[in-house]
């Protein structure tokens, strides 16, 4: 049996007339009769009695009709969902983000949900380097990452971030004498394994300014670094975006000169066709341009 036969059963049961049911299905009456006969043969059950009043369900037909009706509705629902999936209007979207996109990523997700409410979205915090890996493996569809990205990934810039020095308020450091005192300050660092991009940016900044930092401790995440800074253990080179999560008692001091800024944007793998992902990218870029 196939869905056409089940649709024929449902249409004839509801219309009670071969001519009207055939018209509803856009087929001829003989074609409708053949579908019903073929279905009755496959099921081994006579479904309709044909008389002057039209087609009437038999006892067996009455018992099978509700289930056939449910199957036809499920099939129609599946077709509608398949069309939405093909258009990128339904499904699941896996996104990665980092500290620099701490505020931006949720805002863009909210804008996308308003346009495509049937899409389920997963948003996970992870370093850019990990996002690159998952994008290439197909486990992430879009990542909010440090730019530029390397081929085959594509990227589009959304914002910029910059290095700042997070320092205990008790040190009362001033921006105008910060560089002169930098080498004497106890420096806390993020382990390269946890944040390769930030680690490399800090090293480039240190090299560009010919500094010889006094590194006293490393930490595995930015929240721990901030806690150590707040406790007065030392200072740390961090993204300006930490202002969103920095605890009380920390001064955020701007840095100037070379190797202080970088771009943040979205990245994706264009080798993988994905209408849902493309809709998210278009939405993100449109929101940023507005």
TrEMBL record:
The keyword tRNA processing does not apply. The keyword Transcription applies. GO terms for molecular function: DNA binding; DNA-binding transcription factor activity. Residues 1-58 form the HTH lysR-type domain. PROSITE patterns: HTH_LYSR. One of its GO terms (cellular component) is protein-DNA complex. InterPro entries: LysR_HTH_N (IPR000847), LysR_subst-bd (IPR005119), WH-like_DNA-bd_sf (IPR036388), WH_DNA-bd_sf (IPR036390). Keywords: DNA-binding, Repressor, Transcription, Transcription regulation. Belongs to the LysR transcriptional regulatory family. This is LysR family transcriptional regulator.
């Amino acid at each position: 049996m196939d869905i056409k036969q089940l649709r024929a059963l449902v249409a004839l049961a509801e219309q009670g007339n071969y001519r009207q049911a055939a018209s509803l299905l856009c087929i001829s009456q003989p074609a409708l009769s053949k579908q019903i006969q073929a279905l009755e043969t496959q099921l081994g059950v006579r479904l309709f009695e044909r008389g002057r009043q039209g087609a009437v369900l038999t006892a067996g037909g009455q018992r099978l009709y509700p289930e056939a009706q449910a199957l036809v509705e499920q099939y129609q629902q599946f077709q509608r969902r398949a069309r939405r999936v093909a258009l990128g209007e339904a499904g699941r979207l896996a996104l990665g983000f980092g500290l620099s996109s701490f505020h931006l990523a949720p805002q863009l997700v909210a804008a996308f949900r308003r346009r495509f409410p049937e899409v389920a979205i997963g948003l996970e915090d992870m370093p850019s380097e990990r996002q690159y890996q998952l994008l290439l493996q197909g486990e992430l569809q879009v990542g909010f990452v440090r730019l530029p990205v390397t081929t085959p990934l594509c990227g589009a810039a959304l914002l910029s971030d910059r290095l700042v020095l997070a320092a205990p308020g008790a040190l009362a450091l001033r921006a105008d004498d910060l560089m002169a005192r930098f080498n004497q300050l106890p420096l806390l660092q993020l382990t390269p394994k946890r944040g390769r991009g930030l680690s490399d940016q800090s090293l480039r900044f240190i090299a560009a300014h010919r500094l010889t930092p006094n590194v006293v401790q490393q930490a595995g995440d930015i929240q721990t670094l901030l806690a150590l800074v707040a406790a007065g253990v030392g200072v740390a080179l961090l993204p300006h975006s930490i202002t969103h999560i920095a605890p009380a008692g920390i001064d955020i001091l701007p840095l100037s000169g070379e190797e202080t800024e970088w771009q943040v944007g979205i990245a994706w793998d264009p080798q993988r066709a994905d209408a849902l992902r493309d809709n998210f990218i278009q939405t993100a870029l449109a929101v940023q341009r507005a």
